[in-house]
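Database export, one record per block. Field names are fixed; values are copied verbatim from the stored entry.
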Amino acid sequence: MPIEKAFGEEQLKQRCELTGGWWHPDQLMGGFCEYQAPGGLV
């Protein structure tokens, strides 16, 4: 029996963007959120 995802990809994208990240859709892994590290390149 497959386990249901707690959040949909659209919900994860919205949360990512609201918290200052960049959403990268990915068909294989379902997407991920990227944040700029403190002191990183601007």
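Remark 1: The mean pLDDT is 87.
Remark 2: The helical segments are 9-18.
End of record.
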